[in-house]
Amino acid sequence: MRAPARVEPRTLAPPERRLARVSGVERLGAYHFISAEDEQGPPDPRPGQFYMLAAHERWGGGADERPYLPRAFSHARARLASDGLALSFLLEAIGPGTERLGALAPGDQAWLVGPLGIGFRPPAAGARALLVGGGIGVAPLVIWEETLHAAGAQTATLLGFRNGSYAEAARLFAGEPALATDDGTGPGHHGLVTDLLEQHLAPGDEVYACGPVPMLEAVRQICAARSIPGQLALEAGMACGFGACFGCVVRTRHGYRRLCVDGPVVAAADLEEGWK
Ligand SMILES: Cc1cc2nc3c(=O)[nH]c(=O)nc-3n(C[C@H](O)[C@H](O)[C@H](O)COP(=O)(O)OP(=O)(O)OC[C@H]3O[C@@H](n4cnc5c(N)ncnc54)[C@H](O)[C@@H]3O)c2cc1C
Ligand code: FES
Predict the structure, then answer these.
(1) What is the arithmetic mean of pLDDT over 14-28?
(2) Global pTM?
(3) For residue 258, which ligand has an atom nearest its CA?
(4) Based on the number of CB atoms within 10 Å of its own CB, is 188 exposed (0-12), middle (13-18) or buried (19 or more)?
(5) Are 43 and 14 contacting, i.e. CB atoms less than 8 angstroms apart?
(6) To 10 degrees, what angle do helices 213-226 and 193-200 make?
(7) Is the C-beta atom of 249 inside 6 A of ligand 2?
(8) Three-state DSSP state, 65
(9) What confidence tens digit (pLDDT) does each residue in 122-178 have?
(10) Could you give the residue ranges of the DSSP H alpha helices within 119-240?
(11) How far does the centroid of ligand 1 lie from the alpha carbon of residue 263, in Å?
């Protein structure tokens, strides 16, 4: 069955890649927090959209290197400054691309394309937005929380991390998020963030989640069981980021969808068991 065409709010990316100067690099526990000045890009990327990033130098292709494709990252912050947009990304170094990006220093340059995809849609008037983040999936929720607060929306934030070192990323949030760590070495609940979701979820809430697949599947099931609307920011390996390679497809109730153009944020109700 074909889904009816939907016009989604999105900021469109200029088609070419552009260079951004790295302006700040910080360690947040196990994560890297990298800021870059995007002088020519759109000033209004939407929370939940993403950028394709590559280092300007040493991005594969050397003697014993493989040339890399750019990698996808959600922006965690976007601040307008006199010389353009300051974008910040929270990064977990898990392989060659993220390790290279994590080694960038102030003054270095990075290629970027974006913003791409469809981000979070706002909650209905009066609804409380319940933000649920797991691990590196907390990145887009930083700017989503900030945006909801600026709009006067009611929010609560629940974050889960592997351990206390990863939980340092909670410092990026303005409010007082409820925390969970898998091994109990961080503040808050010893266990899963979905335990916190079960405790906090109330009628009238709308859930916004980003994190590992098993967490998102648990969130989807909880929302379905309680008839609560949810939006899930999904991940997939992305080779192009703009709809050309079909490397990022995910199965939905309406057929296969490319996460880079029809997502990465999708309605939880559009997914069914076995989507992953
Ligand atoms: C829309 C979107 C937003 C993202 N936002 C962030 C972010 O804010 N911060 C961040 O650190 N990462 C984010 N990621 C994930 C990031 O793109 C990958 O971690 C990165 O591409 C890994 O590249 P690498 O060369 O370091 O590792 P690789 O060698 O490419 O991968 C290392 C391991 O991770 C797996 N992997 C790689 N990419 C993905 C992926 N996208 N989904 C699931 N498994 C993957 C590989 O199979 C492999 O096992 C995002 C991904 C998407 C699609
Ligand atoms: S990443 Fe190429 S189609 Fe989505």
Answers:
(1) 94
(2) 0.94
(3) 2
(4) buried
(5) no
(6) 20
(7) no
(8) coil
(9) 999 999 999 999 999 999 999 999 999 999 999 999 999 999 999 999 999 998 999
(10) 139-150, 193-200, 213-226
(11) 16
